[in-house]
Design a protein that fits this description.
There is one protein chain. The chain is mainly α. The protein has one domain. It has 6 helices and no strands. Helix 2 runs antiparallel to helix 3, helix 4 packs antiparallel against helix 5 and helix 4 packs antiparallel against helix 6. The chain is globular.
């Protein structure tokens, strides 16, 4: 799946079939459903899920919690705008 196809899928009611849990969480986040996105990453202990988890807490404004999850993801806390980070994560996970 390309980034363009993933982004286009945001007009659908459900995320594309077969994508990873972290990518599905990112999809739900883009749709404005923070709770659904958070539920998904809470059930996944991968580094990719931790990265999305960090992003979600950054969006929420809980920077302390975001830093904790960036650490679990093995990444430095993001400083770019959250929209740019969403694109970076999506591209990396695709």
């Amino acid at each position: 799946m390309t980034f363009a196809h993933f982004r286009q899928s945001l007009s659908d009611h459900l995320p594309p079939a077969g994508i990873s849990a972290p990518l599905a969480a990112l999809w739900w986040a883009a749709k404005g459903d923070w709770d659904q996105a958070h539920t998904i990453v809470m059930d996944d202990d991968s580094r990719d899920a931790a990265w999305v988890h960090a992003y979600l807490h950054r969006v929420e404004g809980d920077l302390g919690n975001a830093r904790y999850w960036y650490g679990h993801a093995g990444r430095a806390p993001a400083t770019a705008p959250v929209a740019d980070e969403w694109q970076e994560i999506a591209a990396a996970l695709l």
